[in-house]
Amino acid sequence: MSLSGKKVAVVGLGYVGLPLAALCAKKGYPVIGLDSKTTTVELLQKGQCHIRDEVVERLLAEAIASSNFTATTDASRIADCNIYLICVPTPVDANNEPDLAPLESACRFVAPHLLKGDLVVVESTVFPGTCEEVVAPLLEKLSSLHAGDDFYLAHCPERVNPGDPFWTSENIPRVVGATSDEGVDLAARFYASILGGDIFDVRDVKQSLYPKFRETEYGLHISQVPLGSVTRMHSIRDAEAVKAMENTVRDVNIAFVNELAKISDVLELDVVDIIDGMATKPFGKGPFYPGVGVGGHCIAVDPEWLKAASKKAGYMPEMIQLARMTNNGMPEYTVSILQDLLNERGYPIKGTRIAVLGVAYKRNVDDPRESPFFKLREILHKKSAALSVFDRWVTSENTAQSVDECIEGAKAIVIVTEHSDVVDRLSKIDLHDFDVEVIIDGRNCLDSEAIRRQNVLYRGIGR
Length: 463
Description:
Elements: E1 8-11, H1 17-26, E2 31-34, H2 38-45, H3 54-66, E3 69-72, E4 83-86, H4 101-110, E5 119-122, H5 130-143, E6 152-155, E7 174-178, H6 181-195, E8 199-201, H7 205-209, E9 214-216, E10 219-221, E11 230-232, H8 236-267, H9 271-278, H10 302-312, H11 318-328, H12 330-344, E12 353-357, H13 372-382, E13 386-390, H14 403-407, E14 412-415, H15 420-426, E15 438-441, H16 448-452, E16 457-460
Parallel strand pairs: 1-2, 1-4, 2-3, 4-5, 5-6, 7-11, 8-11, 12-13, 12-14, 14-15, 15-16
Antiparallel strand pairs: 6-7, 9-10
């Protein structure tokens, strides 16, 4: 299929779908963005962005200027599209089991409009086998067409790093897999057309991408992949596994450094200085850093999808399970540190005013999904603490309107998110003016010595 003159439908206009839709429009494709949230679509129709991210806001402005982008809640508007990009959330339920309902709903929107030669790409994170075992049968049933013969079904796992000004939807390397050779070639050409990079085969990647790739007695030395490159996978299941496994690697490594943080606490070490020292080694390591917990729709969720697929196939991945337990337990560990320091100053948690700074899962983003804030707040509420909360990026949970108002009268501060305004303000104020006696730095973002010089008890995670 030639890509010339093709029209794109993007189903789901969140952190993944909106920048992708805007990029496609910027590159000249007519784009219909479909979302179920009326408030989201109404903002987009006014040219306003519902995501607080400079890169996404710029892309949206460029898409609107191109006159190629339209947002709608009406599924019939995608009827004449040729390329369907599914970018809906794929959460886990209360039992940490994958919830396929949003993906299945998106397939029901797309299927009635499929024609021969159309391309469907699932960007949503799924466990290996989902496209072949769930998506393809549903699309085939509702369209009376066959995947691989009549239409092409591919998977290109999303790679979004909110708040990152360099690695964006415009240049981050992608991988694609499909149910047929023709499908993977078509999907690769499409992504190369919006990213501007070259196409590689995964089994030739070392020779194609890394001409200086070599193994030495000191380990493997590999250069960065080219901006905007697209790598063809030989199996759609492999493509599905890429996202789940790359974030599981991060989850396991973060769990390990959280364990090192606990070891550092009992041995009276500074794990941040140690990790920074380890990072000077030019091969074979991260670095990763410990914290109050992990969040976001990737690290906190993708390992659960991989674990579910593995359990279904008959193998319980114990390391993934242990990593999830470790990272999910960090809010409790943080509260235990808080309790120790408050006790040292003669205060119980019950009834003591505690300022919690940060709701978002990550610095300078407005995304609270899976944030450790919620578990931390739940624990503190059960202990009857008097909480004040502030996050200028996620205001829905706020009880205060500024950092100063949040910490006024508080005996302790707990940092959940190292937003730049929080770090900047706490580095400048005299904590004595606010009666603060304890700081729990859940992101190891403050100058510990400067805090201690104010006679404030300071503890980070592992320092």
